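User: I'm preparing a small set of examples for a lab meeting where we compare how different chains pack in three dimensions. I only have the primary sequence for this one, and I'd like the structure in token form so I can line it up with the others. Please keep the answer compact; I'll paste it straight into my notes.
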Amino acid sequence: MHRRVITFSRNVFLPLTTVCINRCGYCCFRTPVGEGCIVPPGEVLRTLEGGAALGCTEALFTFGERPGAVPGFAAELAKLGYADILDYVYDLSLAAIERGLLPHTNAGILTYEELDRLREVNASMGLMLETTADVPAHQNSPGKDPAVRIEMIENAGKLSIPFTTGVLIGIGETMEDREESFRVIRDLHRRYGHIQEVIVQNFCPKPGTAMEGMPVPGTDEICAAITLAREILPADVAVQIPPNLIDASRLVRCGVNDLGGVSPLTIDYVNPEHPWPQLDELRRVAGDAELRERLCIYPQYIEKKWYSPRLQSLILRLAERLAASGRDCGA
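Assistant: Understood. Below is the structure token output for the 331-residue chain.
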């Protein structure tokens, strides 16, 4: 009998800006335009170098959705010599590759052309579907229109981009909505084969937000959602939970097989009140399963060569390194 495997990635988390056009009812990540609203290149490079020294293999670039549409942001970005935030993340992705880290960008809604361009310098990319339901939490967030998000996930499939998506549990959706969300993701994967992992993430109320008083989904409710995901999603799609947000050691028994990106250097900027578990804690969470480190691009996509030629040597080198050190990524 094969021992069960639970995977994770070692990363640095780089939120390039928290300026965002959306105003979600649960978010404390978004901030207004102002001095210092964009992380300067020197700070990013120091983080990349620090992460590389600690054995990280992934540079997770995130930022608020369409910050350039927010008045005043373009002027702040121009101080760094850029007219578009995507030009900035492209250059920083090159810097990550030079330092031995594979870029994974989650930039909110992107067009087909923007995805195609960033694919050159990203080993994988992501966008949370969150829910297919129209919920009050998203009423002031044009980028959270389910149809818009589904279209982007589909475009990533057309471009053969190894992709991460997921659902957010507890933002006003029903169990039927969750089922529909998983079925939409399943159908996209059946069509294009590009969904490598689906995150089942619990809503965490933040003080000062419109939803600070909303009830928190309990472990049983999250377990039911994970079980539903595992029943609906194909076997080659990993079901992931963020191990810093809930009782992960219990939830791995519900069908979880990935613990996402965990950083030895940077905090979870979206949920700063929840520290990342370190390696010993991840081993405890995994229980009797084998805990195995992976790259941000899953083994099946390495085998299929779903990556840009400029990433090939780094991907293969890192895969070899993990295998040789016992941190087998399965490639």
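A couple of notes for your slides: The domain at 5-324 is CATH 3.20.20.70 (TIM Barrel). The CA atoms of residues 160 and 194 lie 6 Å apart.

User: Perfect, thanks.
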